[in-house]
DNA sequence: TCCCTGCGGGAAAGGGCTTTCACTGCGGTA
DNA sequence: TACCGCAGTGAAAGCCCTTTCCCGCAGGGA
């Protein structure tokens, strides 16, 4: 690889001058030298060594991002928001996938710190895991102590800046909607129980049912991976245990799509026999059949705000922005098929008639 | 940020010794010193400056990847394959989105070269653009001249190692299937015509029709963005121009989903009235309704192979791996509603009866 | 004419790390 | 006893840039 000295030598100037030309320094350089340098750069196909540059200027510019998985639409949307602001400010993003592995998250914090990022953004649910949370906070604190900025999206652990989708209210909206449609036998297809996102959404759901004087028994909840296959499998288990279910809440849209697949496989019409409601409103939600009723989160906006927090002026007190959830009614929800209000024996009578 | 010298000072050793302990060098260090160093590292929360390290060891390790858009499932799958091999070998991946902007692709080649990546992988269709192709090849050649390895996925331009999905045969399979089902009026929802992927797939389709003694007139093709909305819009234009269409080939699955949306909006039942066939077989294809008939490409495998090529031993002659396309029959295709073989007037008689 | 100013350019000092090389003791061989 | 070799450590030379500092020189004011 050609180096700056190579360029300088070829152009017959000092490395200092070559550097000034290449970086458009404010120091003036005569046109003649400038051209000689530029010519040398072109001939040698010179590209500055980024590491040497970053070492020489102690200018931290890049921003580190840790998400669970960029190819998951939830994070793809958030990342789009992050990217937008970063690009506007000429910042490079380093994106890392933790695949929901806490240890990998810890490793990536170190890695990004080592890469001298100006800021760090952690997106995605936190974990119910004391030890991990403490460790993570220590690392983040150490990073912040050296002037790094940190913001989290959708997780509580961190004591600094945060962008929080209102998961609880989202869960509440889903629950209330189903209650108003007359559903009693509601099953929940949930993500891993170790994730705070799962428990937050469940809490909202519980609250909605509670207001109707009902509870959400554990047997009506199945925990699985937060993806399509997890949703399909959890729905199957739910249905096996309780075939009378008239509604299913999936704690994210991927799982909802899995639920829809299982229902289709079992020939249970949606929404006539079973209603389904998702969470997140990812783009594909409009395109499944029937189009998915879901709780919308302003994903792109979450990314925009987190990046703005982290690149904006530092404030004394940490800022927490709570972004609202919104129910999007589409076609996977409808009135409960038949009210299971009458006690089970009554229903048996029904069936007999 | 604490530096290595800080650690060394605190541990009462030289930076050299500290470095040896931290990197597990082969040079032996007494246990006592080792422990002192480790303790200092922990106390100072020391993380090595990655740029300084990369500068000091001339060891190139990271691999650069340029894709059109990681959040597009097509590239998400390929990336998964790339990632798998890279992780196995302890390599870091730097992933850049070009968003199908040739200039940005050029820039990223430079950027990644500047970051001293050991290899470069370009995934995604090439462009019908002589000037760009030449420029890109120059840059890649310059990079290879300094010991860099390059592989491309799904593009012809580059003269070196390549992994090529068999787009042409894929198009052929789609065309033949539709012919065998008796379709005559076939419309094509195509990606941007500047992309070689678009023209390759079209060429295969043409060949299949050609074998039936038919051609594919331009008026039966609509070019649009390679995404859901592009597909929806192109389908609408196609249908407006030619309401008699009995089949639509979408040149990727995202566009097919858009096509399905438009057909649903117009109450044209799939596949009874119109058959639809997609391309790529991305995961969501099974979950739309009806499940999408499509041409499968081994996306993950493409990633695996490209990364293996680039990290494996260098060979004299460039290797090109052609990966097969396969037709996956699902439920969006069926026999043509009524054979348009009889001339239009005959059909009008039909309708009258 | 002399001095000061300011412009254009180069020398050199880092930036944080790895690694070679040289040095000090030590046990072991002739 | 004299010497060789080696384990364990530190000094210092890079890696490739950026940027400060300084120098020479030409032009303008006194």
UniProtKB/TrEMBL annotation, chains A, B:
Residues 2-57 form the HTH lacI-type domain. SMART domains: HTH_LACI. The keyword DNA-binding applies. Gene3D superfamilies: 3.40.50.2300, lambda repressor-like DNA-binding domains (1.10.260.40). It holds the Pfam family LacI. It comes from the Bacteria. Keywords: DNA-binding, Transcription, Transcription regulation. Residues 331-353 are annotated as: Disordered. GO terms for molecular function: DNA-binding transcription factor activity; transcription cis-regulatory region binding. The keyword DNA-binding applies. PANTHER family: LACI-RELATED TRANSCRIPTIONAL REPRESSOR (PTHR30146), LACTOSE OPERON REPRESSOR (PTHR30146:SF153). This is LacI family transcriptional regulator. It comes from Micromonospora orduensis. The lineage of its organism: Bacteria, Bacillati, Actinomycetota, Actinomycetes, Micromonosporales.
